[in-house]
Amino acid sequence: MVKDPSVFDVLNLTQRSAERDLEQALTNRLQDTLTEMGRGFAFVGRQVRFDIDGDEFFVDLLLFNVLQVRYVVVELKIGKFKPEYAGQLGVYVAMVDDELRQPHFHAPTVGILLCADRNERVVRYALRAAAAPMAVATYTYDKLPAAERDALPPLEDLTEALSDPANE
């Protein structure tokens, strides 16, 4: 269901980007993002608000897979996977199932948690008891391995050096 890892190089972000920056960049490059996610994805909304008896919840990205006829909740995390993220994603999947999904038309909602890194065993334990279909996938937006990236000067320094007329 989900491509893993999703390659987000087109977003021009750094490892230090905030979740909101990642979300904004993804929606700015919506077509590229949907293509990277896989076939059949359509955009429903970002920061989709749910009011559950006075408590507010916001789904980072809500997609619809037209090939599978189901909603797909995408939760974004900039760090390493933590078990509590699975609980949060499960709540969002259940809310979309109850509030939006029409069971006679739509397949059950799927949750996808995109995070920068994960421990496979921790993910398995966190998802083992989940009733809803959920996946945890990683994303990347830097193709170079960390050691090579760290050995290079910052992008700003390279850009400045290339644009400085004294270097011509």
TrEMBL record:
Task: Give the InterPro entries listed for this entry.
Answer: PD-DEXK-like_domain, tRNA_endonuc-like_dom_sf, YhcG_C
Offer an example of a GO molecular function term for this protein.
nucleic acid binding
What Pfam families does UniProt report for this protein, alphabetically?
A: YhcG_C (PF06250)
Where's the YhcG PDDEXK nuclease domain? 1-146
Q: What is this protein called?
A: PDDEXK nuclease domain-containing protein
